[in-house]
Design goal:
Layout: E1 2-7, E2 10-13, E3 18-26, E4 33-39, E5 46-51, E6 58-60, E7 68-73, E8 78-83, E9 92-99, E10 109-112, E11 116-121
Parallel strand pairs: 2-11
Antiparallel strand pairs: 1-3, 3-8, 4-5, 4-9, 5-6, 7-8, 9-10, 9-11
Length: about 120
């Protein structure tokens, strides 16, 4: 069992930055891939970024490529999502997840955090 807790969300102006954190506890975090997803009201949960267990390979949705950076610090049992050049369309609840399946799909993850709200004003 893995417990994940997101933090770092908030309200920012367009063009601003936020860094989300995902703190893990329970089963060893380092053996799992980690991903970030987001969900806006009335929309499906969508893939944002993912990173393999070792941190050697990363994946990004086209909509965030070049603006967001996913990373992890296994020694601290923590994952991160650095979000720069934020746009109003980034407004959503952001979730971190851990798993070992298809890193680009919600079904690829077994454990999910509670979510943290990111709101970007224009």
């Amino acid at each position: 069992q893995v417990q994940l807790v997101e933090s770092g969300g908030g309200l920012v102006q367009a063009g601003g930055s936020l860094r989300l954190s995902c703190a893990a506890s329970g089963r060893t975090f380092s053996i799992y891939a980690m991903g970030w997803f987001r969900q806006a009201p009335g929309k499906e949960r969508e893939f944002v970024a993912a990173i393999t267990w070792s941190g050697g390979i990363t994946y990004y949705a086209d909509s965030v490529k070049g603006r967001f950076t996913i990373s992890r610090d296994n020694a601290k049992n923590t994952g991160y999502l650095q979000m720069n050049s934020l746009k109003p369309e980034d407004t959503a609840v952001h979730y971190c997840a851990a798993g070992g399946g298809n890193l680009l799909a919600t079904k690829g993850y077994n454990y999910w955090g509670q979510g943290t709200q990111v709101t970007v004003s224009s």
